Amino acid sequence: MVMQFASKGANVGKAFWGCSQFPRCRGSRDANGEAVENHTPARRVSKASSTSRQGGRGKSLSGGDLLTSSDNVLGPGKLVAREGDALVLEYFDTPGQAPSDRYREAVSRESLRRVTLPPEQRAFWQDPTGIWRSGRVIEITAYNDIHVRGHEWEGFIPEERLYVRWNKPLTDPVGFGEAGMLESPMLAELRLPFLRSILQQRSAAHGMRAVLSSCIELHAHQVETAWRVLQDPVQRYLLADEVGLGKTIEAGIIIRQMLLDNPSLRIQFILPPFLLDQWKRELTQKFRVQDFTQSHIRFSRDDEPSAWDAADLVLVDEAHNLARMSVSTNPDLALRFQRLREIALASPRLLMLSATPALHNEDAFLAMLKLLDPAVYADTNAEQLRSRLEARAGLGRVFLGLQPSLPGVLLKGRLTEIEASFPDDAEVRDLVARARESVATQDRDETASLIQALRTHIAEVYRVHRRMLRTRRTTALEGTYRVSGRRAPEPLPLESTLRDDVAEALDRWREQALASAEGNPAAMTLAGRAFAEAAAVSLDPSALQKWALERAAAPLAADEIAALKRIVQDVAYADRRATVSRPFADALSEVMTSNERAVVFCPTTEMATELAEELKDLFGATSVFCHVTTQSSQENDRSVRSFEAIHNAAVMVADSSAEEGRNLQFANVLVHLGLPGSANRLEQRIGRCDRWSPEGSGGWRSYVVSGHADDAYSGAWERILKDGFGIFDNSVASLQQAVDNATDEAWHILLQMGLDGVPSAVARVREMLDAEIERVREQDALDSLETSVDERSVYARIADVESDASTFANVSNNLLAANGAAGNLRFERRGHPATGLGGYESLGRLPGKQAQIPLIPASRLVRDFLPLKDHVGTFVREFALSSEDVHLYRYGDPFIDAVSDFLWHDDRGRAFGMWRSMPEWPREDTPLYRFDYAVEANPLDVPSSRDPRGELVTVSAGIDQLAFTRRADGIFPPIIVSVWMTASAQELTARTHLDALDAPYAKPGTTRAGGDYSLNRMRIQHAYDLIPAQHWGESWRSAERAAQHLVRSREDVRSAVERASAIADRDAATRLSQLRLRAMRTTGSELVRLHEELHREEVIARAMSAAVTAPSLRLDSTGLVVLSGRALTN
Questions:
Q1: Which DSSP symbol is given to 987?
Q2: In the chain, helix, strand, coil percent, each to 5?
Q3: Per-residue DSSP letters for 495-508?
Q4: Is the Cβ–Cβ distance between 450 and 427 less than 8 Å?
């Protein structure tokens, strides 16, 4: 069976599998894919034009047969010999390669399969005069004769005379040039700009294809975090950014890159139930994990350990929740953490996501560190970690004060403190000395650079764990990553007498509760928390009644029980719908505009459900959604998706079930119908909307229904939240323990003083948080990433290449799209992917509905392109972000990668020949050679047994070797270098000649006098008059050898090598110094692990140095151009 393409009839343009011998076979479909009724196989008739071996293909093997072997991945080879029980296959690379130089390999007979050449397969043969020819396979006859079509000849070639290239990329295009097999320069002019752009993208992204091809906005801290992980061969990390800074995006980049590296990767997600659907949606929409059909991705709940399994990568979100179970007294919870530990240790890669700070969470934090690196922390307990954190507090304090904007006198003082804090660190001493000098000379730029280097060095060496990556909200970050939800809420008036009645009833109960608990600190704390619960549900009379009845059932003093019963009586008459739900719905409808989406948080599920009913009467049933605990997680997820998809006025009504994990940043209005009695819960609530906001997005508005601070405890609590916690202005997510303590203290004060205690509560909360903020900042200062956007920043380089996306769109479209032009890959363009949405189809139609397929072998089309049939893509990132199920055409997209991979394997356009006729040319006919080299550092390429890269290959067994290639790309960005050589193997430097060569290819009679003639089989004879045929190949080879030497000695390449060598040396020295300094401060198992890592980094350093000192040259294309004053004819 072979793949066929129907060219006429009802199935025109469709691909199907059919028998190559129809109609002589027993099949039931003709060559156009149509069913044939009562088909009788035709009698075989020999053809005079066919030179087949008698007897057809048969089962026996003969010399010259094209075969593939499962023993290797080299593709088709020719059977040439037998070695004992094995058969020898010979692999064809280029026509210029001598048969004795072709690679041969003995393979087992059982591994062999015959090759069925697909349509459009490039094939080569020698004509009776020994001249090499090329063409494309059209069909294969019943007798195995192969119908091929070349430029000047078409006919049948027997299999034993036909050659096809093996599966290795073409690295020697001169092999085609020296055989006289030259293509039109137009092909080279189409493919080279595309590959040059791909190399520029690879260079900018440091080999991280996932960054460019993900449908995400690009932000420096997220890109740099992903780069940290992906250039490290040991990929076990804790991503600890503050809430809302994009840990999911960072993890998504890493996951997509790992899938690009290994499409059959096994990934185990362990997630809180409420995040399952969100993760699936993010990974599908932004990172297109559905493209990797061979991968095995398992999403599991973090409360179902029986569903977890070891994998190539394990990702745990909200990892602190499971980590806290490491010290649980509940056997089931302790076993759950033990299962996580087993899974993590059995998996080579681990990503944990948690914004929980180490301070006050030492047990959970240590558990996470032990999952990351069990050998390092095997001997560490929570008390030791706590002591280590306390010891670092002073360092963090000094570190925070180290800012280049300080006046010179203060900055000198800070530098002296820093130097005294790290007496054994030579790098600190050197940087401090240089910084003092720059301060003295008032060189602000140099001072800022040195302070940044000093901060980076200290942060890298003295962080808790070098594989914990944390980004804090800073003023600098806010400038590029704006958060949208921190807006002080406006009061939404709700006229009701219920609030006054509740305030009086709660005040009576407060006095009795205080009398019962006074003198008992534990009882006071419990009473304060009960007070918070009551105030939080005070807008819901039914919930307040329930609270009072449940508390009255406890063993309390008679006076307090009486006060609780009075509350039940006072609110018994209240109608929640009439006093709260309906008036609130009316008030909300008046403040919302026609295209706004509002999220309304309610204190109880019952109120949320009732309010949704009222809102449906005003907004319509299709514009109101619920997210409540009484719905399943799937129902809640559908509500969120529908709410996000709607573009007119809509409301989502939620209870506490939406306060954690959900991403509601797309909404425009946040409304608090009552406030939770816990400040940490309110932080979680606001965090659903307090996320990154794209530039130009509308402003946020926020409302609250709580009452006034002087006549309602809900209003008093709002005042404390606003002025004490500052929660509506800044996130308090990193202060969880202190916020809980301050919350208890605030309600304690309100319990004691009533509404008169609001000022005291505000002052006390502010005092407690200020001290904690300083302690957390001191810890975070040492653990947070110091992201710089300089010339070496991967983000800065990506941003630069992204700014030129339209150029990539144009060169890609010129290469891919048919549009009636000759010489491109003949894809059928749909829509307008260069400026909007569209795509490229591998099955098109010519005028008259005749099918057309690209100039790509059908087998490759089936493997790489047909799975992408009907896909939608764009070169414009903004369209990819705003549309669903859209490919972003960049380095790393499956379609673009498939095109790039084909071009590296294909020979078309790799060796070209042209006669450039210029009537004004004053000189003799001048043949000149062009060579286009990709210059890159390859740390895993071992050219000799003594090369230090050999040791890296050995020590990197079992870890991510592609991390070394990415690191090399970051040190030595790949470049393409073009050189022109004379026929005497000298560099062409004459400006007159170079100017003449600059013009693009133009056929005679088009854009200029004279014109360009491709050197086909007839015209090449004119070139042989200048370079005799017997010297043709050696002349080209001689020029190639000289070109390689020239490229290595060129000033731009030497400068790139020197720059990269300096970077490699500096990076290696920094890494090794940091590891040695960490080793000086550690003992036991951590010291052993650091010595192992130190040895590996020493090997990497030597290999990187060798790789950048002697970069590899990969010849992409070559050509011969004759400059002449005369025109040519065939």
A1: B
A2: 45, 15, 35
A3: --SHHHHHHHHHHH
A4: no
**Three-class SS of residue 749?**
helix
Listed ranges 46-60, 396-410, 747-761, 773-787; the one with the highest mean pLDDT? 747-761
Instruction: Match 């199920």 to its residue by tokens.
Output: 885
CB 941 within 8 Å of CB 1107: yes
DSSP strands (E only) in 650-716: 650-654, 669-673, 701-705
Q: How much of the chain exceeds pLDDT 70, in percent?
A: 86
Q: First-to-last CA distance in the chain?
A: 42
CA–CA gap between residue 12 and residue 1044 (Å, rounded): 49
For residue 464, name the pLDDT band (cuts at 50, 70, 90): low
Residue type, 645: A
Note whether 629 and 656 are within 8 A (CB): yes
Cα–Cα distance measured from residue 978 to residue 987, given in angstroms and rounded to the nearest whole number? 11
**Which residue is listed with tokens 């920043």?**
793
Q: pLDDT, tens digit, for every residue of 216-249?
A: 999 988 999 999 899 888 889 999 887 778 899 9
Return the closest-CA partner of residue 491 out of 667, 709, 702.
702
CB-based contacts of 906, cutoff 8 Å, min separation 6: 122, 170, 856
Q: Are strands 490-491 and 701-705 parallel, antiparallel or unpaired?
A: parallel
Maximum separation of any 2 CA atoms in the chain, in Å: 118
Contact status, residue 1013 vs residue 1126, Cβ threshold 8 Å: no
Residue extents of the structural domains in the chain: 70-168, 185-203+792-903, 233-376, 392-464, 911-1124
pLDDT in tens, 935-964: 999 888 877 778 888 888 777 776 777 888
Give the per-residue pLDDT at 1092.
83
DSSP 331-397: HHHHHHHHHHHHHHHTSSEEEEE----STT-HHHHHHHHHHH-TTTTTT--HHHHHHHHHHHHHHHH
**Please, which residues have CB within 8 angstroms of residue 1121's CB and are 6 or more apart in sequence?**
185, 913, 914, 915, 916, 927, 928, 930, 997
- Span 521-565, pLDDT tens digits: 888 999 999 999 999 998 899 999 999 999 888 888 899 899 999
Rounded to a whole number of angstroms, the CA Rg of the chain reads 36
Q: What secondary structure letter does DSSP report for 621?
A: G
Going by the DSSP 8-state scheme, the letter that residue 533 receives in this structure is H
Q: Enumerate the H helices of 484-581 as residue ranges.
A: 498-517, 521-536, 541-552, 558-571, 576
Are the CB atoms for 1085 and 379 separated by under 8 Å?
yes
- 620 in helix, strand or coil? coil
Instruction: State mean pLDDT over 150-160.
Output: 87
pLDDT for res 53: 40
176 neighbors 95 (Cβ within 8 angstroms): yes
pLDDT of residue 850: 56
CATH class of 70-168: mainly beta
Tokens of 218: 């690009």
How far is it, in rounded angstroms, from Cα 119 to Cα 136? 7
Residue 42: what pLDDT?
Answer: 44
∠ CA 730-735-741, rounded to 5°: 115
Across 320-349, average pLDDT: 93
Locate 208 and state its tokens. 């991280």
Lowest mean pLDDT among 245-259, 331-345, 468-482, 759-773: 468-482
Is the domain spanning 233-376 CATH 3.40.50.10810? The answer is yes
Query: 811-827 in b/e burial notation, b at 16+ Cβ within 10 A?
Result: bbbbbbbbeeeebbbbb
| Phi and psi, residue 32, nearest 5° | -105, 15
Packed helices 736-753 and 498-517: angle between N→C axes, nearest 10 degrees: 90
- Among 444-448, 479-483, 810-814, 1033-1037, the range of highest mean pLDDT: 1033-1037
